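#struct-help
A.M.: can someone run this one for me? Single chain, 218 residues.
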Amino acid sequence: MIEISTSILSVKKGEESKTFIALEQAKTDYFHIDVMDGKFVEKDTYQKMLEYASYIKRISNLPLDVHLMVKDVKEAILDFSGVEPNIITFHLEACKNDEEVMEMIKLIKDLNCKVGISVKPNTPIENVFKFLPYVHLCLVMTVEPGKGGQTLLVDMVNKIETLKDYIDKQGLETDIEADGGINLRTADSVKQAGANILVSGTAILSATNYKTIIDELR
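D.P.: on it. Structure tokens below:
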């Protein structure tokens, strides 16, 4: 089953309540929270996303899908655990070594949250294989992380295929999330490659009818 995680990165100031309620009514599966610190990536959305996530928690029962694009992974995990997300995903590249990766996985699980691990476009997907038995989800960045509205990098479709093939051969049940440049033109290729959770922001939020596009993306 394909699920849709709507990125709220480009929600307009002053229209938060209206947009979040409309997305829930349109039956998005998750709210995708893009947390950036201005260090790991150029943009800084940290406080804005903390505010948005806290607000969503008050008005909606839909799960929060928190994606940490930050250098200080531990601090961000602790900060965002307060909004009781369904899943917290952190970047492999933000950790110094394998021990730190495992430490972050354990910390997230200890906070009663699902764990996701993410890789940037230039990181070989094989680098994440050893951690897959310990996480619930692997997020493949299909654009360079840091800003919305980018075009999907076609090579990333092969990366998703390689990941899916490994997961199947190992008998794992890891979800594959694709994030970046997902719209009606690109959704089919990432789904066929093996992604079962699609992150989409611009394509959904710029549509006149959220439900129509969410249904079509599925």
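A.M.: thanks! The longest helix spans residues 155-170.
D.P.: also worth noting: Helices lie at 16-25, 46-59, 73-81, 98-110, 155-170, 187-193, 202-205, 210-217.
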